Write the structure tokens for this entry.
Amino acid sequence: MKILVTGGLGFIGSHTVVELANEGIEPIIVDNLYNSKEEVLEKLEKITGKKFNLYKYDLTEKENIERIFNENEIDAVIHFAGYKAVGESVKNPLMYYSNNLISTIKLLEVMKNHNVKNLVFSSSATVYGMQETPKYTEKMKRGDTTSPYGTTKAMIEKILEDLYASDNSWNIIILRYFNPVGAHSSGLIGEEPNGIPNNLMPYIMKVASGELETLNIFGDDYPTPDGTGIRDYIHVVDLAKGHVKALQKAPKGLNVYNLASGKGTSVLELVNTFERVNNLKINYKIVERRPGDLAEYYADPTKAYKELGWKTEKTIEDICRDAWNYEKNKMN
Ligand code: NAD
Ligand code: UD1
């Protein structure tokens, strides 16, 4: 089986390439290196002992995608490629709508022309918006998105629904990730945020490495047990395995799955666990709440367990250990 992995040199894509290769599935990578480095390819080859075909193409150009499909017998596509920085999308919405929507539409057009109608799409918990209860299930309707980035995810989900309604020979799997963190246990691949990170785990990493002085914890007056925000953190290797299971096990048609642990962890719990397992101190101070943040949400992941036979295996301890192992490796 040959799978086109768009954005396959990025954080989640690279870990998924490893898990596909481990299952004897052949990944073909396309990435324009906007948010990744070519050296990730060598790391992937080192981890798996296999060689991969990389196309350094931009997916907004249809001829590029055509060329990949002309040169390969592709069975399915896992579509990771896109821009993902929430704050940047607020500052530059057109850039986000243009890249995320155009690349997806061009990709779908080429897939249709080549009669390749199997797609896995990277969506996000952000499409739920604010719900009445913090435990999000796939039965809930999409809510109001709070950033242009989130809106691109909701719009693409809608495009995929319309496409399926027009032709139900498509098999479309929408995976809604909660908070992907951690790194491969080899320490060779992990998350590479540009500039000062906005997300919690990459920020903790910069403070641990001494690049940044203090972690700002955004609020300790939320209605949660320790007052800090609660999220559902998922180890990126578990997440990558979820994609393989989805390809192998999802029923025909259009299906949506939450990929998450089902367990909420607070900011302070994450910081304390990071300190304990790595024997380090993280300087932090409590500051104002970050506008737009919700107090608490986590997933109900039972649908993925029942239908795909997938659940997370790694713990918050594993996440903290593996993330720091990757960071330390880079410093050496
Ligand atoms: P990433 O930025 O590390 O990887 C995305 C990759 O896509 C990058 O390597 C980038 O160079 C490439 N890319 C972007 N636009 C492209 C284009 N036009 N043509 C070719 N390549 C292009 O991001 P990630 O964390 O691995 O996320 C993967 C997907 O999962 C994204 O769609 C993201 O929105 C989604 N997602 C991520 C998270 C998260 O927290 N990381 C959460 C929910 C959903
Ligand atoms: C954010 C995005 C979401 C995206 C996800 C990727 C928003 C509103 N949501 O989610 O669309 O899919 O990242 O993982 O931006 N925190 C601190 N200090 C920090 C950073 C974060 O205290 O320096 C807290 C936040 O208040 C929150 C938790 O840590 O309670 C997690 O934050 P973050 O990693 O940014 O993820 P989300 O806000 O859940």
Q: What stands out?
A: The chain has eleven helices and 15 strands. The longest helix spans residues 93-113. Residues 86, 124, 126, 146, 150, 179, 198-200, 203, 215-218, 229, 231, 267, 290, 292-293 surround uridine-diphosphate-N-acetylglucosamine (ligand 2) (CB under 6 Å).
